[in-house]
């Protein structure tokens, strides 16, 4: 009987050993009215961070990218409501992977405008998710309240729909997954990547926005502009394999 009981416990033990508790959603102040949002999923058996940006404007809050999946996005929106006490009015998504668009339903259920490029919208639908509004041109500038927002498609890299988002008043660039963190040890998911054009796309971003003070990569640390050169190192390393 004792042996039978232990036999029943074995699969439970294996299950709990494999369970990984995600850290809390984080909102980190960057400069006045600008915050990095960090959500998590399990990657290679460990919690892995995904970054986006929150910008408080005179007309409400802009988010760049959803949280990583629907549940993390719900938690993120709750944190924004509790901590920043301002209405979210817009979300801009930088490409059609789950760490960027996985929370699209949370915005649509709340009636919050969520936008991307036509190609990102098309790719989102192909994954069985409701699409963001595919209205962004390849290079455009617009206002939310008194805040200027610029979105730019520099060419294919991590994906063929990856865009970056720049806030000229604060000189903050959200690189999404086109830009790897300066601490990144690997290039990550390249299932939809174009390694031949990725380096040029990074160079296009640097030329387009020469006065950046912060670049927010899609994952990991953001406090060092050497993320650009690290991205190119990783792309070159993978091209030569």
Automatic annotation (TrEMBL):
The family database entries (InterPro entries) matched by this protein are listed as: BcII-like_MBL-B1 (IPR047917), Beta-lactamase_class-B_CS (IPR001018), BlaB//VIM/IMP-1 (IPR058199), Metallo-B-lactamas (IPR001279), NDM-1-like (IPR050855), RibonucZ/Hydroxyglut_hydro (IPR036866)
Q: Which SUPFAM superfamilies match?
A: Metallo-hydrolase/oxidoreductase
User: Which enzyme type, at the first EC level?
Assistant: hydrolase
**Residue ranges of the Metallo-beta-lactamase domain?**
49-219
User: Mind telling me which GO cellular component terms the entry cites?
Assistant: periplasmic space
Q: Which organism is it from?
A: Runella rosea
Q: List the PANTHER family.
A: ACYL-COENZYME A THIOESTERASE MBLAC2 (PTHR42951:SF4), METALLO-BETA-LACTAMASE DOMAIN-CONTAINING (PTHR42951)
Necessary cofactors: Zn(2+)
Which family is this protein grouped under? Belongs to the metallo-beta-lactamase superfamily. Class-B beta-lactamase family.
Q: Name one GO biological process term.
A: response to antibiotic
Enzyme Commission (EC) number: 3.5.2.6
Extract the PROSITE patterns matched here.
BETA_LACTAMASE_B_2
Q: Spell out the protein name for this chain.
A: beta-lactamase
Q: Which UniProt keywords apply?
A: Antibiotic resistance, Hydrolase, Metal-binding, Periplasm, Signal, Zinc
User: What GO molecular function annotations does the UniProt record carry, in alphabetical order?
Assistant: beta-lactamase activity; zinc ion binding
Q: Subunit structure, per the record?
A: Monomer.
Q: What is its main location?
A: periplasm
């Amino acid at each position: 009987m004792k042996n039978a009981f232990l036999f029943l416990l074995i699969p439970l033990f294996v299950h709990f050993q494999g369970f990984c508790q995600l850290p809390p959603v984080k909102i980190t102040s960057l400069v006045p009215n600008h915050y990095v949002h960090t959500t998590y999923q399990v990657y290679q058996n460990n919690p892995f961070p995904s970054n986006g940006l929150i910008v408080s404007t005179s007309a409400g809050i802009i988010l760049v990218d959803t949280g990583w999946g629907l549940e993390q996005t719900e938690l993120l929106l709750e944190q924004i409501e509790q901590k920043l006490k301002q209405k979210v009015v817009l979300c801009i998504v930088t490409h059609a992977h789950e760490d960027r668009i996985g929370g699209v339903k949370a915005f649509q259920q709340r009636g919050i405008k969520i936008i991307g490029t036509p190609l990102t919208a098309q790719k989102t639908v192909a994954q069985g998710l409701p699409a963001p509004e595919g209205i962004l041109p390849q290079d455009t500038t617009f206002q939310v309240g008194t805040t200027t927002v610029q979105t730019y498609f520099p060419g294919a890299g991590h994906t063929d729909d990856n865009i970056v988002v720049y806030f000229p008043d604060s000189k903050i660039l959200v690189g999404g997954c086109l830009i790897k963190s300066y601490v990144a040890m690997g290039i990550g998911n390249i299932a939809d990547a174009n390694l031949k054009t990725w380096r040029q796309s990074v160079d296009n971003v640097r030329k387009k926005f020469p006065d950046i003070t912060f670049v927010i990569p899609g994952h990991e640390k953001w406090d060092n502009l050497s993320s650009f050169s690290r991205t190119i190192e990783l792309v070159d390393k993978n091209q030569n394999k």
